[in-house]
Amino acid sequence: YAIEFQHSPISVDEIQQRESGYANMVWVFDCIGKDMPSRDVGDGIIRIWWKRPRTSVLWCNQPVLLDIGDAGVYHIISMPEYGNDYWYAKHCHKNEIIGTLTSGTFSQATRVLEKLITEGAA
Predict the structure, then answer these.
(1) Number of domains in the chain
(2) Sheet containing 38-42: which strands, arranged edge to edge?
(3) Structural contact between residues 78 and 87, judged by C-beta atoms closer than 8 angstroms
(4) Residue 88's beta-bridge partner residues?
(5) pLDDT digits over 7-53, tens only?
(6) pLDDT exceeds 90 at position 106
(7) 69: number of Cβ within 10 Å
(8) Which residues are within 8 A (CB) of 87 and not within 5 positions of it... i.e. 6 or more apart?
(9) Structural domain of residue 44, as residue ranges?
């Protein structure tokens, strides 16, 4: 996997260009200190209300991780159609993400989590 760390704003055009350059990539957006209240909805899934999301994130077609600092990472599994709605994610420790990426099972984990969302787990 190519891992794209994003600390500053990025345009939709840049997102599309970078995604077209890799078969397998993951976005990691810096969200340390952002106001993102969350609540557990069951089966290891949390619902996040990101008050002021980067709207360009909504255009990502590759997996998205939100780095929330020492608390870990949110692995986004469902983004809102518009930026002011709920996001669904799996809260992960950074070591889990590193292990998943290095073992090549990231896509499989994403499909399992997406299935939970579509089956109404959240």
Answers:
(1) 1
(2) 2-6, 25-30, 64-67, 73-78, 86-92, 45-49, 38-42
(3) yes
(4) 47, 78
(5) 999 999 999 999 999 988 899 999 999 889 999 998 889 999 988 88
(6) no
(7) 12
(8) 47, 48, 49, 50, 53, 74, 76, 78, 79, 80
(9) 2-118
Question: Which carries the bigger pLDDT value, residue 59 or residue 100?
Answer: 59
Assigned token pair, 88:
């669904």
User: Are the C-beta atoms of 56 and 10 separated by less than 8 Å?
Assistant: yes
- φ, ψ of residue 73 to 5 degrees: the values are -140, 140
- Sequence-ordered list of residues with C-beta below 8 angstroms from that of 12, at least 6 positions apart, any chain: 56, 59
Residue keyed to tokens 């500053």: 8
Residue with tokens 């609540």: 39
